[in-house]
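Work Package 4 report. The design task specified in the project plan requires that, given a folded chain encoded as structure tokens, an amino acid be chosen for each position. We show below one input record used in the internal validation round.
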């Protein structure tokens, strides 16, 4: 990579201007695509989207929707908003490379992430070195914010917040024992660790943990759960809509209750969710079917893409809308965007209001929902 691309934007800008005024007549400037670049042209305000690939297309769709709406509402000082997409599909480490590309090649002013925890860690490291905001809307690993990185924000509840919310409900039951079920992946492992950590803080014994390989699942542990008589089943991991597991658990449900973390169901829209899970299931899921702007978001998403938005789409839409709000209020300079987010009190989110604590975590983020009479509704403490 050239030294020029590694420079901070302000130094690149100064060097560019110096070269511009010393070029002899007739010399033309070219963009990276090889086209003639007009030095006086007004460039779009670019916001980057780092996403996991074709399996998470709703992330791209929701980001596009937010950008389209922003441009319909009006340009900013004659400049349109532009979405720049980079996929992390491929071998481990792609997240770092694509983050570098977004910052130094595409010259985005902020990055919105819809990637798993490992890629989020890579993107976070790049964002810190480049001093640019990385707003995460999918990774729930608590360690992402524990380094107290001032450029990192998260608009989705982390594993600790989710575990606390679910365990509070379980602790109110006469039989508060529970088991943890995960797909064996890194993200599921972090969610399981969080649940165990919160259980120990409450002075309770560690729960039994059952894991399986999502590529070649063996659900033999379901019979063990049936035999031990534990009634509360907590599902974790990144295997959205693992219907086979739900079918297996359905055979032993009886008076058991399923508790579900957000990553397990983030790729399911509300209609699929209420069909897949039994009545009484308690879930961490954004209440975008109940917020003031939620129904309009659902309607616009369906009209544009002929599909219903899932939780992933809702968080991405809010994340992109929040970044646009920051830029409209302060300008596209990364430091000003960061400062805006530090003090943000965004009330128009389709997933609810958005504020961040001193670590960049979203406060009051782990809203509980339940399935009642075939509908996804807010969980009430007396249920």
């Amino acid at each position: 990579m050239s030294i020029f691309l590694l420079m901070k934007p302000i130094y690149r800008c100064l060097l560019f201007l110096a070269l511009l005024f010393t070029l002899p007549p007739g010399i033309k400037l070219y963009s990276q695509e090889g086209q003639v670049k007009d030095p006086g042209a007004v460039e779009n305000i670019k916001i980057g989207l780092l996403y996991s690939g074709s399996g998470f297309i709703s992330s791209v769709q929701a980001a596009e929707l937010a950008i389209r709406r922003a441009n319909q509402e009006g340009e900013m000082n004659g400049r349109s908003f532009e979405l720049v997409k980079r996929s992390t599909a491929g071998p481990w480490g792609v997240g770092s490379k694509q983050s570098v590309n977004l910052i130094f090649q595409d010259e985005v002013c902020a990055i919105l992430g819809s990637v798993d925890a490992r890629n989020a860690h890579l993107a976070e490291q790049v964002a810190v070195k480049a001093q640019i905001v990385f707003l995460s809307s999918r990774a729930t690993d608590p360690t992402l914010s524990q380094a107290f990185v001032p450029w990192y924000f998260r608009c989705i509840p982390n594993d600790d917040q989710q575990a606390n919310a679910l365990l509070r409900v379980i602790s109110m039951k006469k039989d508060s024992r529970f088991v943890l079920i995960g797909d064996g992946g890194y993200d599921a492992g972090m969610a399981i660790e969080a649940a165990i950590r919160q259980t120990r803080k409450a002075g309770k014994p560690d729960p039994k943990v059952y894991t399986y390989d999502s590529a070649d699942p063996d659900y033999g542990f379901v019979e063990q759960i049936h035999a031990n008589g534990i009634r509360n089943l907590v599902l974790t991991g990144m295997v959205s809509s693992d219907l086979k597991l739900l079918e297996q658990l359905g055979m032993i449900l009886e008076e058991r209750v399923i508790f579900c973390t957000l990553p397990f169901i983030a790729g399911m829209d509300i209609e699929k969710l209420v069909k897949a899970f039994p009545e009484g299931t308690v879930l961490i899921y954004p209440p975008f079917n109940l917020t003031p702007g939620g129904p309009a978001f659902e309607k616009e998403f369906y009209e544009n893409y002929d599909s219903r938005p899932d939780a992933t789409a809702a968080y991405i839409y809010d994340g992109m809308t929040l970044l646009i709000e920051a830029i409209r209020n302060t300008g596209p300079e990364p430091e000003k965007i960061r400062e805006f987010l530090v003090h943000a009190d965004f009330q128009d989110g389709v997933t609810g209001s958005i504020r961040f604590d001193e670590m960049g975590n979203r406060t009051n983020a782990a809203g509980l929902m339940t399935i009642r009479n075939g509908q996804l509704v807010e969980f009430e403490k007396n249920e």
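The chain has 15 helices and twelve strands. Validation will be extended to a larger panel in the next phase.
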